[in-house]
Amino acid sequence: MIRRLDSNGGALLTAGASPEAVITHGFVFVSGQVPDVANHPEGPTDFAGEVRQALANLARTLSDAGSGMDRVVKVTTFLTDRRLAEYNEIYADAFGSNLPARTTVMVADSEHAIEIQCIAIAGDSEGIQRIANVPGMAPVLGPYSQAVVANGFVFTSGQTPAVTSMADQPESFGGKVRQVMANLDTVLTAAGSSMDHLAKVTTYLTDPDQLVEYNGIYAGAIRSGLPARTSCCVDIWDIALEIECIAAVAGPSPEDGAIKRFATFPGLADSVGPFSQAVQANGLIFTTGQIPLITSVDHRPQDFAGSVRQVLLNVKTVLEGAGSSLDSVVNVTTYLTSLDQREEYERIYAEVFGSNLPATTSVCVGIWDFTFEIQCIAVAEGAGEA
Questions:
Q1: Which residue intervals of 277-325 are DSSP H helices?
Q2: What's the burial of 84, exposed, middle or buried (CB within 10 Å: 0-12/13-18/19+)?
Q3: DSSP string for 39-93
Q4: What whole-number distance in Å separates Cα of residue 346 and Cα of residue 359?
Q5: How far is CA 113 from CA 167, 336, 345, 381, in A?
Q6: How many whole angstroms separate alpha carbon 229 and alpha carbon 44?
Q7: Are 312 and 348 in contact (CB under 8 A)?
Q8: Which helix (H) or strand (E) holds 346?
Q9: Among 229, 127, 116, 234, which Cα is nearest to 181's?
């Protein structure tokens, strides 16, 4: 069953066309929370106030969904203000000792200083395992867990090229990629999973020219079990790249944590990198970030509206091929390249999804020579509640 939580009774506002949260399979998928104040035209005007309001909105949404801040397993924070230390202090106070896995990056543009996307557990917090520091890795650099295990999945924090500390990093970009992949492997092993159980990877690069080199090293590290993947360009302070992931927990038998990978589907352009178009694990389907390709990288729509429609058509093709549908999408992350695109995107997006809108987060990033990208999580057809 999929339950979509709409705004009601003075609850917080979410940006754009989306419910506040979607609840399914023991998880709460929360739309990107911004510092808007319900029933008030103006929100906070200072950075600290915006952070506190976004976190208050997140707490309110989780409570409405039957969850809480103590049950959050993964947070991705998109900032336009570089005051990370101030953000960390307010964030740590909000979460206390129940720190989720977390990734924090700088995005290109936003109407707000902060937007927070999160996944939480529905119901009580029993069974959540939080892994703070992992032997052999640099100590955590902020208020987060290296990984959180819940409901058969491992959610990792964004992995960086730190060896023993942030001051201790490989000098070359290739060395940084290899260190990030080694750190990811170490974290997954500590959490009871492995690189073979990866379902979804999101890669944040800082230089679009790094993609080709990154792809070669990444493919060698992952080998044949390619997860779904999204890659985009952001600002990550003094870090060249950061990788976050969702993996299935490895069980004692081959059926436990089983992963089904879909390399491609009829009607899609050839893949432009080392990834599966979709991965099914524990009743959920994770898609690769879909871009506006028709039959090849050189065959794409010429206008933005056409690009949005082509991406959503590609999403539909992938989901149906993997055993799901647009009606079963529960979480979407949309990557735009300009705020000016938002209104047109939201109009087409709402038209395509109709009344079954997923939890949605939309941010502005760099996507090479593409203007639009969408990644999503959906429920597999016939998957019972976890």
A1: 304-322
A2: middle
A3: T-S----SHHHHHHHHHHHHHHHHHHTT--GGGEEEEEEEESS--HHHHHHHHHH
A4: 13
A5: 27, 17, 21, 38
A6: 35
A7: yes
A8: helix 342-353
A9: 229
- At residue 359, the 3 state secondary structure works out as strand
| pLDDT given at position 14 | 44
**Which stretches of the chain score pLDDT less than 70?**
7-17, 39-41, 252-257, 384-386
Cβ(51)–Cβ(72) below 8 Å: no
**Rounded Cα–Cα distance for residues 213 and 311 (Å):** 26
DSSP 3-state assignment of 299?
strand
Tens-place pLDDT, residues 163-214: 999 999 999 999 999 999 999 999 999 999 999 999 999 999 999 999 999 9
* DSSP secondary structure string for all residues of 193-217: --GGGEEEEEEEES-GGGHHHHHHH
CA distance linking residue 222 with residue 263, whole number of Å: 14
pLDDT of residue 126: 86
Q: Order the strands of the 259-262 sheet from edge to edge.
A: 259-262, 278-281, 284-287, 372-379, 329-336, 359-364
Which residue has 């703070």 as its token pair?
132
**How large is the greatest C-alpha to C-alpha distance in the chain, in angstroms?**
55
The domain over range 258-386 is classified in CATH as 3.30.565.10 = no
As a whole number of Å, the CA-based R_g of the chain is: 19
Phi/psi-derived region of residue 354, left when phi > 0, alpha when psi is between -120 and 50, beta in every other case = left
Question: Tell me, what DSSP letter sits at residue 371?
Answer: S
Residue 330 tokens, joined: 């529960």
- Six-digit token string for 10: 């003075």
- 321 alpha carbon, distance to own chain's centre: 22
Give pLDDT tens digits for 222-259: 977 999 999 999 988 778 999 999 999 987 655 555 89
258 in helix, strand or coil? Answer: coil
User: What is the domain partition of the chain in residue ranges?
Assistant: 258-386
